[in-house]
Amino acid sequence: MSTAQLEHEAGHGHEDGPESGLHHPAEGHPAFLQHHFDNAAQQESASKLGMWVFLATEILMFSGLFLAYFVIRSSFPEMVLEAHEKLDKVMGSINTVVLITSSLTMALGVRAVQTNQRLQARWYLLATLAFAATFMVIKYIEYSAKVEHGTLPGIYFQEHVYDVAAGVQGTLDRWWGGSQLFFGIYFIMTGLHGIHVVIGIGLIIWIMVKNERGAFSSAYYTPVENVGLYWHLVDLIWIFLFPLLYLVK
Amino acid sequence: MSAAHPLSSSTAATGAAKAYVKGRSVDVHEAHHHVMPISLYLKVFGALLVLTVLTVLVSYLDLGPAALGVAMVVACIKAAFVIGYFMHLKYDTRFHAFVFFSTLLFVAIFFALTFFDLKTRDMMNANWDSHQFAIDKGLVDKPALKDTKPLTEEEKLKHGAEGHQ
Amino acid sequence: MTTVTLEKGISHGSDHTHVEEVDFYRAKRGIWSWLATVDHKRIGIMYLVGTLLGFFGAGVLALIFRADLMTPNSELGRDMYNKLFTLHGAIMVFVFIIPAIPAALGNFFLPLMLGAKDVAFPRLNLLSFYIWVAGLIILLFAIIVGNLDTGWTFYTPYSIKDGSNATPLIIATGGVFVMGFSSILTGVNFIVTVHKMRAPGMTWNRMPLFIWALYATAIIQVLATPVLAITVLLLLIENVMQIGIFNPAWGGDPVLFQHFFWFYSHPAVYIMILPGFGIISETISVHSKKHIFGYKAIALSSVAIAIISFLVWGHHMFVSGQSEFAAALFSFLTFAVAVPTAIKTFSWVATLYKGVITWNAPMLYTLTFLFTFTIGGLTGIFLGALSVDIHLHDSYFVVAHFHYVMMGGTVIALLAGLHHWFPKMFGKMYNEGHARIGVILVFVGFNVTFLTQFMLGSQGMARRYAEYDPVFQTYHVISSIGSFVLGAGLLWILAYMVWALMKGPKAPANPWGGVSLEWATQSPPIEHNFHKTPHVDTDPYNFPEIDRSAASNSHH
Fold it and tell me: Is B79 inside any structural domain?
């Protein structure tokens, strides 16, 4: 959004009191400085605070799902115990490692921009992207298996059961307090988390493009940092999702 | 005329930025950030891997009701590493930590008061079992399999082991 | 002593040319300059128009069913009646009252009062507006598809339907989900703006109380609205997939839905009222030329309300099947949330004492607020008492209570604010005579409508009923007549305000002699608000003109 030249001049506080000397020189200011901020430091600290407040909202949103999980678990402990065995611990563990590693590469990517190493940043961000994509692929494999076995949420639950002891296979429909509840919360939690991973992928691509255009340096890398914070939150949510859904008895 | 950016940080940062004070938001030095050495990132990563392995291994033990508590404690430790180091909260202005932890407080309120309701419903009504009507209606037990077919030997072998999926 | 001086309309460019600054309406022209604006003032105006459209639309719905309620039998029929009150509630809550003061007046005045050029994230601000519009369009779609009759509270399992019956619910919950993000992002924006963009010299204790109110509101928006988002998302998924989390038919818990819903919706009512409190603090001091009494108490009580509001949601669920222990705990905590509000009310009345009161529209609305909000707040305490609520829950007493706080509170405060800031926002003055007629119509209409509803409720008339026992008819007729007077009054206000926009006299920069920063710039403000960054060395309630030769009370 282009701004009138007047806006640039007025309100920068050049004529004003003692603080003005601390800020940028009278002519010219960095390209990244948005016009409603007085200086880069204000912009950066506002940007980061905004991100942390936004992360707070994400935590509260997911907290509702965790509460629903705990309530289901509290109401139907045996069902949850039995149903969660159908989740693949190996895949879940791999995905956990994948996400943690992606957090590492993301953090290193931020550090690279922070230390003016644009090229290194490119590789770290690319690595993060690769791990994120891996996560989604594994997720896809898991979901496909669920579809195949019919362990789907709610009304779509039609589990294909192999009862070896009885020597029969058949379909299990949903029942009161049954596995469709567990798989329901499983799909909602991992699904919403997966959507956040996809959004994260989009954000990482965005900053990669900007990085290629030379937008970032040690003087200005707040967007990279903020995308990093978002990505770490995605990792954090998974750190709690994984044991609750896959592991806990 | 392009001016050198006055806040270009060639010098290393001096620790955590000041909390926001009186009238003006900016302490110019706030712009300089603590740069963590790569080795620290790798150590944190290592710790996270170890804790992940730990949490998976522990899940195979039979800890009974303690299993949930142990898993959550381990998850919290992992989270603390991610938050403190990867997200730089340890080196950031303290206000960010305040925002983060007060959020957790409200999550705790949400959980605590809701569970307080759920868990105390039976206390005044000794004979009230919220699932009784379902039990009476025969809804509780898993229904029988429908559309059954016999299993071939091959299928028996394939699904004999305690399958994951 | 005020050091904020009024500015002339000249600024200095970097090459020292003198440039006449035009107001923000004229700074840029054309519809695209509005649709793609990042100017917080334009965004505020757009929200104002949008929310008022919602207000009038939902208000008309209310007048329709109030007309129907004049007779014990329902001409509309139960189904239509259910749909009308559902829509009235949903539109009023989500489209009007949650965003109205913060997004309209808040957006316009937050940066001005802080001495800033804009909010911290202007593009995010525009995005918030478009998200709001998108949510509104989705909700309108749900209305057209029809059949939304669950009440705005969407209680399960009635709100979980299958097949094509679920469609209006899926759409409506989707619309609410989307709209919630507008509120969340506005909250983020305001919190950061208040923290990071205050003018030099403006410490926390020199901020106008309207800002403190908006800040506390933003805290609630940020913490509570995400839970609403997940609640309606879960309800949407329940309607699509019948998972059963909230449906007892499959092992779910309908009271759990209420916990989820009210965890947001109780703090939400403080989102609705806190900005109104902020407006009252401004108008009551400016129009009595008296320093606000108890600045710190009012400021901190706003934050206290924000926090305590998260502890009391179960008082909406006393008869839901919630445990008696939880109910008792929530009832006790509910009494606590009244305390900070009472502190404010005492402080406002104390502000008036020995002030020089101007009997203009902003002050008349402010005084109305003190009366009607207090009734609303006190009756809230009645309802918060567990034993009393058992009898009054879901009766007209509850309806009267919340209309006294939401309409007698927020809407009256909004009217006070609109009149108080009309000259600043539009550069025109409304006609005081016209305005006083509006005050009378609104005051009489409102109280006749809703005071009778307290009687109705305590005598047993249930809410959301299309038909009722003829013994209640007299009260219903009186209430309905009141509602028509109220509607006429509100339309009258709209009419003279539009007239003033077109034909009113030009307004000066500071018609009331206010000391907060928005009065230190022209009316309407220039695009970037101030010619020079203001410096503040006083709090915004030091009115210099009053002769205080008599020993005065101390003030903060």
Answer: yes
Tokens of C61: 């719905």
**Residue A162 bridge partners (DSSP):** A169
- Asked whether residue B81 falls in the same domain as residue B125, the answer is no
**Would you say residue B163 lies in a domain?**
no
User: How many domains does chain B contain in total?
Assistant: 2
Do B124 and B137 have their domain in common?
yes
The answer to whether the Cβ–Cβ distance between C196 and B25 falls below 8 Å is yes
Of the options 1.20.120.80, 3.40.50.1970, 1.10.1040.50, 3.40.1110.10, the CATH number for the domain spanning A41-247: 1.20.120.80
The dihedral built from the CA positions of residue C394, C398, C400 and C405, taken in this order, carries a sign that is: negative
pLDDT reported for residue A163 = 83
Angle, helices A40-75 vs A222-242, to 10°: value is 10
Nearest chain C CA: its distance from B123 CA (Å): 8
CA angle at residue C301 from C298 to C306, to 5 degrees? 135
Q: Residue B108 belongs to what domain range?
A: 93-141
Q: What is the DSSP letter of C151?
A: T
As to burial, measured by CB atoms within 10 angstroms (0-12 exposed, 13-18 middle, 19+ buried), residue C32 is exposed
> DSSP for C276-308?
HHHHHHHHHHHTTT-PPTTHHHHHHHHHHHHHH
Contacts of B30 in chain C (CB under 8 A): none
- Contacting residues of B for C256, CB less than 8 Å apart: 114, 118
**How confident is the model over A206-244, as pLDDT tens digits?**
999 999 999 999 999 999 999 999 999 999 999 999 999
Residue B123 lies in a domain: yes
Query: What totals of helices (H) and strands (E) does chain A contain, helices first?
Result: 7, 2
Judge: C192–A7 Cβ closer than 8 Å, yes or no.
Answer: no
Cβ contact (<8 Å) for C324 and B117? no
Instruction: State in words which class domain C10-520 has.
Output: mainly alpha
pLDDT in tens, C447-480: 999 999 999 999 999 999 999 999 999 999 999 9
pLDDT score for B146? 85
- Give the mutation candidate from A2, A3, A5, A6 for the C interface (greatest C CB count, under 10 A): A6
Judgement on whether residues B135 and B80 belong to the same structural domain of the protein? no
Same domain, B86 and B97: no
Chain A residues closer than 8 Å to C120 by CB: 36, 46, 50
Q: Let me know whether B27 and B70 are in one domain.
A: yes
Does pLDDT of C415 surpass 90? yes
Q: What pLDDT does B157 receive?
A: 79
A13/C256 Cβ within 8 A: no
Does residue B83 sit in the same domain as residue B35? yes
Q: Which residues, 6 or more positions from C420, have their beta carbon under 8 angstroms from its beta carbon?
A: C279, C282, C283, C286, C287, C362, C512
pLDDT digits (tens, 9 = 90+) for B8-29: 223 333 333 333 444 454 444 4
- State pLDDT tens for residues C116-165: 999 999 999 999 999 999 999 999 898 888 788 899 999 999 999 988 89
- The reply to whether B30 and B88 lie within a common domain is yes
Domain range list for chain C? 10-520
Residues A10, C12: C-beta atoms closer than 8 Å? yes
Q: C313-354 pLDDT, tens per residue?
A: 999 999 998 999 999 999 999 999 999 999 999 999 999 999
Spell out the domain ranges in chain A: 1-38, 41-247
Which residues are within 8 A (CB) of C359 and not within 5 positions of it... i.e. 6 or more apart? none
Q: Indicate if the pLDDT at residue A245 is higher than 90.
A: yes
Same domain for B41 and B77: yes
Of C195, C253, C322, the CB nearest to B20: C195
Contacts of C43 in chain A (CB under 8 A): none
Complex-level ipTM: 0.91
Is the CB of B116 less than 8 angstroms away from the CB of C329?
yes
Pairwise CB contact (< 8 Å): B23 & C202: yes
Chain B window 90-129: which residues touch C at a Cβ cutoff of 8 Å?
95, 103, 106, 109-110, 113-114, 116-121, 123-124
A31 inside 8 A of chain B by CB: no
